[in-house]
Every structure is written in C-alpha cells, then in structure tokens.
Amino acid sequence: MNNVQSDENARPCGLTPKGLERQRRILDAAREVFLEQGYDNASINDIMCRAGGSLSTLYRLFGSKLGLFEAMMMQTSNRVFAAFEAVECAAKRGDSPEQALKRYGHLLLERVLSPEAIGLYRLVSMDCSSEREHIQSLFYAQGPKRINEKLSAYLQRQVEQGIMNIRDTETAAFQFMEMVKGNFQLRALMGVSISKEEQDRAVDQAIELFLYGAMAC
Q1: Contact indicator for 149, 85 with CB cutoff of 8 Å
Q2: Which of 27, 63, 74, 167 could join 67 in a cystine, given CB atoms 3.0 to 4.6 angstroms apart?
Q3: 3-state DSSP call for residue 192?
Q4: What is the pTM of this model?
Q5: pLDDT (tens place) for every residue of the chain, 217 residues total
Q6: Spatial contact of 61 and 26, defined as CB atoms under 8 Å apart
Q7: Residue 183 buriedness (CB in 10 A; 0-12 / 13-18 / 19+)
Q8: CA distances (Å), 67 to each of 44, 64, 208, in order?
C-alpha cells in the first residue's frame, strides 16, 4: 500500500535523514488536516501546502491519500503504545493486579480522552467517503484492538501463573476497558468536561468489579 514502515523511528529503505524529516512533516500536516476537515474533505494540496514539498513526494512516499491516512494512523498508534509499553514493563516488575490495572486504567483514559483521540474517533464515526469501511477497520485495528491485545496478554499471564481465573482473557480485557471508559468518550465527543475525580472513581470501581464482582459477602 505504501513504503512507510509501521515503526516511525525505523528508516524506510532509501530515505536519508532529510527524507525522514520530510516524511514526518507530511504526516504531522496530514494529521492536522484530517482532524480539521475529515477524511473525505481533506485536501492533499492543503496538506502539502502546510508540510512543504511537492505532490510527487507525497505519492512516492505514501502512494495515495488512503496510504497517507494509514501511515498517519500507524504513527499515532506507535506513539500511544510507547506509553503502554512502560505500563507493561511495570507490571512485569511485580505490580499486583490492582496496581497494574490502575496504571492501565488511568493511561487508557488519558489516551482515549485526549483531544487527538476524540478528533480521530469523530472523524472515523462521521466519515462518509468511499473508503469508510477501510478507514474504520484501520482505526479499530490500530486503536481498540491493539490496546486490548496488550491487556489481554497481561491477563493471560496472570491466568498462567495461577493468579487469576478468567475463561476468556480477550473478552475480559474489552469488558474492563468498557467499564473504565463508561460514558466518558461520549461526553468528551459532546464537549462535556470530565473531572479527575470522576476518572479516579471510574478506574477504582472498574477494578473492584473486575477483580471481586458486585455480590455482597
């Protein structure tokens, strides 16, 4: 589809440091324009006007408008997942399930409720272009699915170590994510503010329900 590698720090074949910087500028400009105008209305000319350079450079690097969007999504996803890797390392150092899930829950809300994430979610939800199905599939794969795989892998390790008893870790990971997010994402889309206290309570209660259930002893 295009010759940009998924790891934004890796050097695509044939690109010099100057070429890598040009690629970064194009991706940054693309993110701005896509978030402002949506995928269908986004203009390749506008992107290149902001980034500087020629259309031929864009097509050589990304192949098409869709290829540019895909590369932008991968770059964004890789940046988000650098933070999740840090949480995963902390869990491997011996965090208890409560500690690990609390770190994960707070980071999830921080990322999901960021202006960039809300903008991308709005873009994908409202897109009416002929590429709608591909764009939504890409967003799901690079966002919710990829995040869920990290938590699911952690839960599976807990099961294998005899710490947790979970029938389906993939489903359980999604369930925990949804308990943490609650209606926050919808409220953020509508421009409703969400306090730090609300987020803290949501994470704590999600952990309590996830680990111990809601039945009184």
Answers
A1: no
A2: 63
A3: coil
A4: 0.81
A5: 444 444 444 334 456 888 789 899 999 999 999 999 999 999 999 999 999 988 999 999 999 999 999 999 998 888 877 777 766 776 677 788 999 999 999 999 999 999 999 999 999 998 888 999 999 999 999 889 988 998 999 999 999 999 999 999 999 999 999 999 999 999 999 999 999 999 999 999 999 999 998 776 5
A6: yes
A7: exposed
A8: 12, 5, 43
